[in-house]
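During the no-cost extension, the postdoctoral fellow (Dr. R.K.) reprocessed legacy sequence entries with the updated structure-token encoder. One reprocessed record is reproduced below for audit purposes.
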Amino acid sequence: MLNRINIYYKNHGLLKLLKKFISKFIVFLGLVEDIPQARIRISNTIYDMCNGIVKYGPLEGLKLDINDMSWSQADLGSILLGIYEKEVLDELEIISKNKSIFCDIGAADGIYGVGLLVNDLFEKSICFEIDKNGQNNIKNLSIKNNLASKVKILDEASVFSMQSMKNIDWSDACILIDIEGNEFNFINSDLLELVSCSNLIIEIHDNYMDYPEKSKKDLENILGTKYSIKKIKTKSRDLSNINEVKNFHDNDRWLLCSEGRGWLMEWWVCKPLTDLS
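Re-encoded structure tokens follow.
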């Protein structure tokens, strides 16, 4: 939290930071509804309409429980309608044709770690999540969807912990890395030696770093020794064929498309150079 406040201060200055605190306090008093609250309200409406079941996209059929969501509550509506991180889901669907193991480093509530197994895109998943509530949410989600035997839940990921998993063929794995800026420290030559034949998708949080451009350049250089890199960003969303929201007010409908990010998100889709030879 302190890190996010410091980043906001550096990007926007003291006056806007003070205004932010004041607006949050007014929301806390219940005098107005801010955007995060509105997103949760809309998501709860979608949750009730869909009975907690994902209706569209690669995760279709995934059964969610709103009580087992620590990170995903505001995004719940877009997850249920299949538009959350659609660019990432499209890439995962393609990669799944050649890989059977999904590894989620920074698995949060397990939406991907469990959801990508519902329609057999992957045969099994490994979920690394350091938060105990998150681990419990993943466990509950896997049980709710009768997939507990296919989901392995672990604490913090490291080269050592991944090397120790002797029964895992990392060349048969797709690894999603979403660790809030720690990707710049986590991804090193030792890790790449282990997973050089895995497909990687990395969520880039350069704005959390003191020197964003240098951090990205250094990461790109080390990844470039083992991978070709395709950079993707959040694109537009088409809601015209989603019946669940046709009677929503425009403000609510388009707020569903927000993922609540502080900047335009970018992911690096990394394909092993060995696949190109």
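The first strand starts at residue 101 and ends at 105. The chain has a mean pLDDT of 92. The remaining legacy entries will be reprocessed before the final report is submitted.
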